[in-house]
Structure formats: structure tokens, C-alpha cells
Amino acid sequence: MQKSVEEDSVQGITCRAFTSTLFPRYPDLSLRLFGYLHYSSGSTTVDRISQSAFKSQVDKLLSVISDESLIEVYVKMFAACNPEISRENYRDLIMTAYKLAMDHYPEGAQTCIKIYRTVQAVIDSTFHRKENVSVPFAAHWLGVHCPKLVSGVHKYVVHVLTTAYRTAGQNVTQTEQVGLELTTPVLDKSFTFTTSSSGDNSSVSLPLSQVWLLATSLPPLFTKPQQLTPSTSSNGITSQSSHLILVKMIGSVFPSHWVPLYNSNSQGLGANRFLTHVLNYRGATLVFLRGEGGVEFMLGSSSEWKESHQYRGEENCVIMQLLPEYHVIERGPKILYLNTSIRGYPKGIRAGSDPRKPAIVVNEDFNKVTYKEIPYHLISVEVWGCGKPEQREAQLEIKKWEIKEAEKQRVVKINAAEWVDHPDRYLLELAGRPVYNNTAS
Length: 441
What we know:
By secondary structure, the protein is α+β, with helices and mostly antiparallel strands.
């Protein structure tokens, strides 16, 4: 209120003072928040709210309310308190949530060139070619498909409104630490895929904006911050990656790290390649299926993939379409299926609660993905592990052991008597190569 008196010479809280004091970095959010508080207070003045009305409305906003009600509050806020919200205002809400998350990203402020494609998929899925939808409808859609989208915005608003008395007038150029740095998973670079000879990063194709959006939709199992726990290698020596060592120096909780397990662009597309790189990872995984025409799907498994003739998975499993529209297809247990070797049962990957009519099917040749009985040529498959770092290290240890065992099997000692009748000896003779030990018998 003091700022309003000093800057605008009026009693009460003005929009200009509210923005310059509390939200100088996010003027659009400030304008919409002030408009919501002004409308809710029933104030008859155009550009200010009385001190008592302001305090009353802020107390209501900071009170404990259900997640569904909180989402509707922010949708209504960005709809300028109208009964319907437009595509443009809906886009502003999503972009505000995105900007806050990227400004507080664990590795520093980030941006993503694919953000507009990512956001457009959400808008198209919500509006169904309409220009406006009702506020309750948009809020319900977010509650089903992106239930955590506004939680970061609200967390930031609460932080500012409850700490502004300490920071008013101070330098606001630095990023405020409000806990948002733990909300978006970090794409681990300790096991990055090999890039192409041209030097680009086309093999790592998961956009950061998509990571952020998925974090608003997925169960906490895939995105929750992790506790630092040292892992022990096979020789008994404790091993930690560099980012874990750094986190140990500054605290014991760090954001979820997604580690790349498989990318068909650099490691080959096929069922055998998928099995080689994904099996034995005993943590949650996300499988991205990209098809012709820009379609993309995601299968979220809460536990490790295993070959079976039955559908597997726990309660936190999820099936989603990411592009060209973004929405959850199904959630629940026993909705994921993988079989490449068991005879008499369908081969490939399947997803859905109805085995007779699965939502998504990847054929055994890994060259076609079918959604709602519409086939698409499968272009690429990408898998990310969302478990603990020690689960990835355990998988790598198993791979090392398998390689050693395979090498042992290759070394086959043959005595002279066996070599006489060995097929390889006959092939060498046909090729005109000299063969020795002919006298052995």
C-alpha cells in the first residue's frame, strides 16, 4: 500500500504498484492476478483495491483448496473472469507455467525451440477446433490430462505474496529460489547417445518442452525429486556420477534425472535392439513411439519391461498421445505387453486395458505402429529410464557380465582330430586357403 501512495498518490493497492513491487519479471501474470483479485473483491474502482479487500482476497487464494478448484481459479484468472476462455488466453496460461518452470530449471534458465508445437498440441486437444470453451470444461480437461500444470504457477504466487515484505525494493534480477527447480526432470547427459558424423544432436530427440509438459501429466513415480543414495559397483567400490557428487555437496535432494536407454536413430530400429538396451533396467521407463505424419505416442511403465504372454504393469502405468494432439489415452495396471519369442501369442508391443482391442500396437518387425486401428509407419523409438541412478548402473553391470559370457562362448577349443571333420575346414579348402593338420586322425 505504501508503494501505491508513493507512486500513484492513492489509497489502496494499484495495479502498477502491485506489478512493480511483486511481479516485475512477470507483468502478464501480475496483470491477470490483480484483475482476478479486483473482480473477486467486488471493487467498484477501476484500477485499485482497498487494503482490507486485498488482504481478504489474498487470504482466500492462499487458503487450502482442492486441486480441481485451484485449476479452475487459474483458468478463470486467465479468462479475465469471463465464463469462457479463448485459445489465446489459454496459450498465455500454458506459456506462463512453462516460463516459470524454465526460469527455475536446475541447470539454469532454459528455452526450447519446440515449445510452440508442444503447446499447440495441448490447445488443439482441449478446444477441438473451437475458438472458445467454457472455463469449467478447460479446467476439467487440465485436471485429467495435465493436473500439475498450474501448481508451479500457484507455488510461485504463494511464495511472492508471503515473502514480498522482505524483498520489496530489492534487486529482482536474480532467480528466486522457490522450489520450482525440482519440478522438471533433468535429461541426464552421463549416458548421452552418440551423435551423427555431422555433429548434430538429432539422435537425442526428446525436446525439453515435452519433458516439462510430461512432468505435469505423469504420476509422481516418474518425476518426483530423489534422495541421494550412494551406489556400489560389483567390486564393492562406491560409485557416483558427477551430478550426484555435486548434489551431495549442496543437499540431499535433487530433481529426477531421466537417463537415455535406447534411441533407434543411433542404435538401430528393431525388436532385438529394443530388448538389448531396455531389458534388465529395473525402474520406471518412458517409451516414445514416433510415426509418419508427425504422430507420437508414449508408454509409461512403472516397472521393468519383461517378455510375457500376459499384460503387465502397476497402477502408475500410463498411455499417452503427444502429437499432433496431447492427451492421456489410458491409465492403470496391466495395460502393457511385450512378446517377441513366445509362440502362439501376439508378437510385438501392445498397450491398452482390452487385450482384444489394444489402443496401441507395435508389430513384431518394429516398422509399424497402430493407434485406434489406424496404421502408421514407425520412424523411431526412444526409451528413457526414470528410476534411480543405481538402477541404471546395475543394468550396465549386467550388460558387462553378458558380454564377458558371450566372449567365453566364442572361444571354442578344437583338437586336431575334431578339426579334420569340422565344417569351417571344408569352407577354407573351397576358398583355396591352405589347411594344416591333414595327418591327424
